Amino acid sequence: MTRGNDHLEEHDDGFLGGQLERSSRRARQQRAEGGISVALQVVSYGSLVALWIIGSQLLGSILPGPVETLAFIWRELERGALLMHLWITTKRVLVSFGVAMVLGVALGSAMGMSKRIDDLLQGWLVVSLTIPRILLFVVAYLSIGLNDRALVIALIITIVPTIVVSIREGSRAVDSALVEMATAFRRGPTSIFTRVVLPQLAPFIVGTARGSLALTWKMVVLGELLGRTSGVGYQISFYFQFFNMTGILAYGLTMMLLLAVIDQGVMGTLQRLAFRWRAPVRVNGVG
């Protein structure tokens, strides 16, 4: 018995030692991969800055360099214009995006789970997807007026179809057996949607939200450029009239940076929270 116990202890020690060695090896490998990942990202962003510097040297009369652009941004910050216009644009984006997400998720879920509703709204979806987006802003300004309400409505109509398509496909992928089980247990429609359907739609909703937010940021500039007297789009249009490439680039750059912060800080956090039940997901700049 003593010899057998000794053998078992040696076997356990060997097994534990192997486990510790493998864990240590995996940790070293993860640290190495993390270092390589950071280095590659630095190279990626550094190459963009280097290309900008080279382009400004070759096209000095057309493309301002980073130092000149940053100096212009600082001057706009000092006089308060930059933050004011960024905040106005951000408010328009958030309102439009919030309403569009609610409508898009509701309509997409209904179309994905009901063939009749899908057939009923099919024509509206096709037309809204194919209509030129600039036409929506022009029609909204002509019919409603040159105001924020027209801009927000045009933005919502522009974003909703994209959300509907993604959520509809996600709804079609929902496990119908779980829905039938919940129905058999006499759960109400609201309970079934919130406890059965919505968790399965979470990946589609989060992914669609990140893409739709970026699209809203791009389209609001077009809307402001066409018919508003405030916001980043208006400022870009203003400096375009004076052929001031530095001002155009400065406002475009600050808007890009703000979108990156929101995407990484807010949307990235929501994505990690939505997927905290599964294996860790690495979130980068494109989701």
Summary tags:
287 residues; mainly alpha; MetI-like fold; 10 helices; flat
Question: What does this entry look like structurally?
Answer:
The chain is mainly alpha-helical and 287 residues long. It is 85% helix and 0% strand. It contains ten helices and no strands.
Question: Layout of SSEs?
Answer:
Elements: H1 2-58, H2 66-78, H3 81-113, H4 115-130, H5 133-144, H6 148-172, H7 176-184, H8 189-227, H9 232-241, H10 245-274
Helix pairs in contact: 2-10, 3-4, 3-6, 3-8, 5-6, 5-8, 6-8, 7-8, 8-9, 8-10, 9-10
* The level-1 CATH class of the largest domain: Mainly Alpha
Number of helices, where a helix is a run of at least 4 consecutive DSSP H or I residues = 10
Tally of domains: 2
Proportion of residues in helical segments: over 70%
Report the uncertain regions. Answer: none
Largest sheet: none
**CATH architecture annotation of the largest domain:** Orthogonal Bundle
Q: Which structural category fits the helices and strands?
A: mainly alpha
Number of strands: 0
CATH homologous superfamily classification of the largest domain: MetI-like
Strand content: under 5%
CATH fold label of the largest domain: MetI-like fold
Please tell me the overall pLDDT: 82
Structural shape:
flat
Helix-strand string: HHHHHHHHHH
Report how far apart the termini are.
59 Å
User: How many whole angstroms does the radius of gyration measure?
Assistant: 26 Å
